[in-house]
Amino acid sequence: MSAPPSNANEECVGPQSETAGKAASCAGCPNAKVCASGELNKPNPEALAVQETMNNIGRTLLVLSGKGGVGKSTFASQLAFSLARRNKRVGLLDLDICGPSVPLMLGLQGQEVHQSSSGWSPVYVDVEGGGDECELGVMSIGFLMPDPDGAVIWRGPRKNGLIQQFLTNVDWGELDYLVVDTPPGTSDEHISIVQLLKASLKKGDGAIVITTPQEVAMMDVRKELNFCKQTNIPVIGLVENMATMRLAADSLTFCDKQGNSVDMDALREKCPEIFNLDVSLSVFPQSGPGPRGMAEKFNVPFLGSLPLDSHLQRATETGKPVAQGNAHGEFERIIDSII
Ligand code: SF4
């Protein structure tokens, strides 16, 4: 499935839809002739190769975000951990070519992939709390780079070639779930991923879109949701991340308006009840009805709202599954609804 060309009309129905080039919204589009010819509907040999690789995979979950920094890779990593801890065979494919953070988030920094006659072998994670059947294999460009701090300064065709290799040349074996961490936004790489994967998507496959609640993130997510619509990628749901931060008051230090530290022992003695409470604050200014309202507007399920949680941050930094804290319960509820 091709993504709409950059010069497509705003209400593009998608170059591979049945009405492409003939719909009212195609009027005046410079691509109308080629869209109407059906040329863009011909099977793409690379996509067919991807399809063959994906035959042994149960469900494919694409994790998308409109922009970087909203917690997409954290979500993808913890999603993979959580599914594996439910005794599933899981693959995590990190296609964020320019910012591969999955090796760190899975505790696999410095690991290398091995090549066999059947392709690249994923790096396997020992999943704490997983059952006998559970398995978590990971593939990331991070494993192929000699210097983890080195920048990937490749141009489009080379990046797209690597994405294709990742989608066709990894020997996953049989998987219940493949979680794909995609690059943020709707860049060239992103379009390549969709073009290659689209034909392989089955019932139950689709995108999980991650956003934070402020307008600067949501405006890009709206583009992402429109991209999914135009390319016919089903959206499993939208997740709001970092909506609030909740902390035990006991873990805080207080200061006066000038920034001078307050004597905590004196405060504790004066108002002991405060220290039995949690403090909750909004991290970002919410725009309009927020991510929940945006999900309603786009008619996609709203999967839940994850707080900014130090347990989750610590788990991510140390490459472990989050097993406690405020985010944990909500995260598990979100995974339940995805399953
Ligand atoms: S379907 Fe084709 S002709 Fe119609 S708007 Fe999209 S790109 Fe243009």
Structure description:
The chain is globular and about 80 Å long. The strands form two sheets. Strands 1, 2, 5, 6, 7, 8, 9, 10 and 11 form a nine-stranded mixed sheet that branches. It has a two-stranded antiparallel ribbon with strand order 3-4. It starts with 31 loop residues before the first helix and ends with a helix. It has eleven helices and eleven strands. The mean pLDDT is 85. The chain has helices at residues 32-37, 45-53, 72-85, 102-105, 156-168, 188-197, 215-230, 264-270, 290-297, 310-318, 326-338, and strands at 57-65, 89-94, 114-116, 119-121, 123-124, 135-140, 175-181, 206-211, 235-248, 278-282, 302-308. By secondary structure, the chain is α/β, with parallel strands linked by helices. 42% of the residues are buried. The chain is 32% helix and 20% strand. The chain folds into three domains: 14-43, no CATH class; 45-244 and 286-338, Rossmann fold (3-Layer(aba) Sandwich), CATH 3.40.50; 247-280, no CATH class. Strand 8 (206-211), helix 7 (215-230) and strand 9 form a beta-alpha-beta unit. Helix 5 packs parallel to helix 6. Bound molecules: iron/sulfur cluster.
Please state the second-level CATH architecture of the largest domain.
Answer: 3-Layer(aba) Sandwich
CATH topology of the largest domain: Rossmann fold
Under CATH at level 1, the class of the largest domain stands as Alpha Beta
The helix-strand sequence is: HHEHEHEEEEHEHEHEHEHEHH
Look at the structure and give the mean pLDDT.
Answer: 85
- Unreliable stretches: none
**Largest sheet geometry:** 9 strands, mixed
Q: What is the helix tally?
A: 11
Estimated share of beta-strand residues: 15-25%
Work out the oligomeric state of the chains in this entry. single chain
Query: Compute the gyration radius: what is it?
Result: 22 Å
Query: Based on CA inertia axes, which overall geometry fits?
Result: globular
